[in-house]
Design goal:
Elements lengths: L6 H14 L1 E4 L5 H21 L3 E7 L5 H6 L8 E8 L9 H7 L5 H8 L6 E2 L7 E6 L6 E4 L6 E7 L3 E2 L2 E3 L9 H13 L5 E2 L7 E4 L6 E3 L2 E2 L4 E9 L8 H8 L4
Antiparallel strand pairs: 1-11, 2-3, 3-5, 4-14, 5-14, 6-12, 7-11, 7-14, 8-13, 9-10, 9-12
The chain binds 2-oxoglutaric acid and fe (ii) ion.
Amino acid sequence: MDILSSATAVTRARDSLHSTGIAVVPDVLSYTQCQHTVKLINDLLVKDASNSSLFRKEVFHAAILNDLGDQKAQKDESTQLRSCKTCVAGDQIPPSAAPSILYYSEESPLMEFLKQVFDTEHVYRTEDKLGCLNIHVYEPNGDELNWHYDNGGIAVTILLQEPDEGGVFEYVRQARPANDASEDAALVKRVLSGEQKPEQANVRAGSLVLIRGNEHLHRVTPVHGVLPRVLAVLSYESTPGVTLNEYTRLKFFGRCS
Ligand SMILES: O=C(O)CCC(=O)C(=O)O
Ligand SMILES: [Fe+2]
């Protein structure tokens, strides 16, 4: 975590985010911290096998989830993208896990780092007990997160376990055309047809990844092999006191409370 207090790391990440839309900061968590968290999550998965309180869902969705995209209501391949993973919600993650400490601790340098890198005066944790800190488990039988834009502009993740095969974070460097849904849809089509090649981020276990997720189309390729891909998603807002509504809680966590 010390690396986040380094001025060089701030400058490097800020420059990278500015020029490419993404910044990868390696070794924010150690291998031991990552493995400790993976073990805690594994224990939850084993315990959960019988009562399924962890939320696992396969969905088919459009790449563009905003109002402009949905209005088109076309039924082509760009609206039938498959995503499937297990989500461990904020209230299920042990406080002793390294991502919890990094996210919640008053001594954590992360918040200051984010303000400087995203060049903003205010960054707040999402104050939702489910949607604050999540851990996503991509099982190695084809779990994936298909092409999408995020709703929020500050996406922060930490990879905890690399899979053997697939699970690559891909993104399109070209920033989203401002308020132009038809250009947006054209970009999605070019990416889906292979005409426009995405970039692949080089992310190792322990790396912090920052992206402007509402501007850059991105996805996680299907995971195969033996090891699941395990990733912490740390949620932030530009205004204080943000909670999720019931619709969003049901959609992402399968429950309201
Ligand atoms: O799993 C990842 O690396 C990306 C996650 C992501 O894009 C999201 O949760 O919106
Ligand atoms: Fe995303």
